[in-house]
Design a protein that fits this description.
17 helices, Dihydrodipicolinate Reductase, domain 2, binds nicotinamide-adenine-dinucleotide, Rossmann fold, 2 domains, 7-stranded parallel sheet, alpha/beta, 4-stranded mixed sheet
């Protein structure tokens, strides 16, 4: 497969709908890294290694040296927001990064001004922006976004563009007839069908142009049959949903471990407090519902109570998010986990994670942008399940159970990279190392 990967030549445009806390943290971070002011910690594409061949070969190149990724120097950022603040102003308001760091990259950040957003308050009640496109129909709005993408590409001399949704979480929408086929969807765009949310319009515009689309929020966006079909038709990689950070990251690290040791779980109560704009949006029940669905599926899919009812059949799982302004972007989460072991004896685990939401999300945005671009150059299209590693609620082929276990997700991602580059896949069997031993027994 390695012969089909096009080189990462020229500039890569990374277009982001939603220039809020996460987006401004990744943009400022990449600029700081480019200046040698900081390290891209948490980004596998920049700092991760990958083992190749047998353990005895001791080959552990950096991922970025193994697969042909765009260089940070070649990335050009752009985006849309419902507020007209430039990225420096937006980052200053988000208060994730220290003013000193932001000032060191002020010029680069000030130069990025959001394009007018496709927005409708009925999908995000708690937001009030006025930097918004106006048009007669959702179809015209999609066309306007396509023009934005093309203009950005030309103005910045980009050879390739990718899009990563970092906009707020929209209200909960279920898949319905208008989402079923490309024809229905396009008709829905013309008729302003209320089941088509703004994030779907961005996804449509990107996919129609063959621009890879990754969805960092839990709203459906590209996770509908019409856009999956369109992605296949236009040869576009897509993926989602909801960046895997914070409490869910911990859950997908811990739950596979408990399950691996056949320990039972009776209950898992998760509560969070956070005070950023994301928290404010999620304070509204319609938007929280979207997040809740995304967060709840994780345990069920890892533990599979249907095939192991004795250990997981009675699990009580609850997730709460509370808006608490004094904490800003520094989310605090508590988990109380009631487990049981040998002969049913109960035990408890308590986790208190004082995390920084956007600090965990920023490297994910960078990796997704670079890997989505790689997938496109490798002529991979449709759902990129190998990127599940980065998502809370991984998008999979219809009818396929998503894989939430972070370790299985990592193996899948690493093997996909090995496969792309024509390297042997690693099964971790390793019996051959002991062949002499086995034969002498
Ligand atoms: N930070 C994390 O750890 C994390 C983890 C998983 C998912 N997410 C999701 O990522 C998204 C961004 O999070 P954040 O903390 O940066 O939130 P944020 O509120 O700081 O930023 C979101 C931005 O999107 C803008 N926006 C909303 N609708 C838009 C539209 N239609 N077009 C253009 N812009 C639009 C808002 O004005 C805002 O500036 C949210 O959906 C959040 O749920 C974040």
């Amino acid at each position: 497969m390695n012969h089909v990967i096009e080189k990462a030549e020229g500039k890569l445009g990374v277009l982001i709908p939603g220039l809020g806390a996460v987006a401004t943290t990744v943009i400022a971070g990449v600029e700081a890294v480019k200046k040698g002011l900081s390290q891209p910690v948490g980004s596998l594409t920049q700092m991760g290694n990958i083992r190749l061949g047998k353990r005895t070969e001791n080959r552990f190149p950096k991922i970025k040296e193994f697969v042909p990724l765009a260089a940070l120097e070649d990335i050009v950022f752009g985006g849309w927001d419902v507020y007209s603040d430039n990225v420096f102003e937006a980052a200053s308001k988000a208060k994730v990064l220290e003013p000193m760091l932001l000032h060191a990259v002020k010029q680069e950040l000030e130069a990025i001004r959001p394009m007018k957003a496709v927005f409708d308050k009925s999908y995000i009640t708690n937001l009030d922006g006025d930097h918004i496109k106006e048009a007669g129909s959702k179809f015209e709005l999609a066309k306007a976004l396509m023009d934005d993408i093309e203009n950005f590409r030309d103005a910045n001399d980009c050879s390739r563009v990718v899009m990563v949704w970092c906009g707020s979480t929209e209200k909960y929408i279920e898949v319905s007839t208008v989402h079923e086929t490309i024809q229905n969807f396009e008709e829905g765009l013309r008729n302003n069908d209320p089941a088509i949310s703004p994030s779907m319009i961005y996804a449509y515009a990107a996919i129609k142009l063959g621009v890879p689309f990754m969805n960092g929020a839990p709203n459906l966006s590209c996770d509908i049959p019409a856009l999956i079909d369109l992605a296949k038709e236009t040869g576009t990689p897509i993926g989602g949903k909801d960046f895997k950070t914070g409490q869910t990251l911990m859950k997908t690290i811990l739950a596979p471990g408990l399950q691996a040791r056949a320990l039972g779980i009776k209950g898992w109560f998760s509560s969070n407090i956070l005070g950023n704009r994301d928290g404010y949006v999620l304070d509204h029940p319609d938007n929280f519902k979207t997040k809740e669905v995304s967060k709840l599926s994780v345990l069920e899919d890892i533990l599979q109570p249907d095939i192991n009812p004795e250990l997981y059949g009675d699990i009580y799982h609850k997730v709460r998010i509370n808006y608490y302004p004094p904490h800003g972007d520094n989310k605090e989460s508590w988990d109380n986990i009631d487990i049981f072991g040998w002969l049913g004896y109960p035990m408890q685990i308590k986790i208190n994670f004082l995390c920084r939401d956007s600090i965990l999300a920023a490297p994910i945005v960078l990796d997704l942008a670079l890997f989505a671009d790689l997938a496109k150059r490798a002529q991979m299209s449709g759902i990129q399940e190998w990127l599940s590693f980065y998502f809370k609620s991984p998008q999979t082929a219809p009818g396929l159970r998503p894989e939430h276990d972070i370790f299985k997700q990592l193996i899948k991602m690493q093997n996909t990279l090995r496969h792309m580059m024509g390297e042997d896949l690693i099964t971790h069997l390793g019996l051959d190392y002991y062949q002499d031993l086995v034969e002498s027994l």
